[in-house]
């Protein structure tokens, strides 16, 4: 009986130790000493899917900032932040309708390459896609084409309102994954006097 109880206690202790070790590894993989703050300076609010005036410029300029989460000023230990520099390797575009409609374009991911120094910032994304050019012939954009009636079937409107969500991904030189995102609210229309 005593031997059986010792085995049970040992099994419970091993299970508890395994949970502690696994949770520590999870915390180490998911926490980072830096945070990415992604902001944008929007230049266009309307995208004319037919093209036209002002449509050959960037929708927004994106700034990526790396913020150190530890208070560097109030520490007595020397700090080497080189391993907190962040290499940016890709961005993702997704969408959220803000006009009551549900249909959204297919999101996508693009590879990029850049470095954000710990505690610094960069305007790495000065020219990025907000939608795949083939998306114009697919829902929900296709409904705005004159041949398809020129109106969104869900809202009855001749335009679509949605947030374009840009998420930037990277990792510190020490290997911690980081990401940050920003939203760009846009109106999409077809043959509506160009981009504005």
Characterization of the model:
The chain is mostly beta strands. It has 2 domains: 30 residues; 158 residues, Sandwich (Immunoglobulin-like). The protein is 15% helix and 38% strand. The protein is built from 1 helix and 8 strands; from the N terminus they run αββββββββ. The strands form 2 sheets. The chain has a 5-stranded mixed β-sheet, with no helix packed on it. A 3-stranded antiparallel β-sheet has the order 1-3-6, with no helix packed on it. The longest helix is centred in the first third of the chain and has 29 residues. It starts with a helix and ends in a 7-residue tail after the last strand.
Question: Care to give the gist of this entry?
Answer:
This protein has 196 residues and is mainly beta. Helices cover 15% and strands 38% of the residues.
Count of beta strands: 8
Number of structural units classed as domains: 2
What structural category arises from helix and sheet content? Answer: mainly beta
Strand order of the largest sheet: 2-8-7-4-5
Topology of helices and strands:
Layout: H1 2-30, E1 34-42, E2 46-48, E3 60-68, E4 86-97, E5 108-116, E6 121-125, E7 159-172, E8 177-189
Parallel strand pairs: 2-8
Antiparallel strand pairs: 1-3, 3-6, 4-5, 4-7, 7-8
Keywords:
Immunoglobulin-like, five-stranded mixed β-sheet, 15% helix, elongated
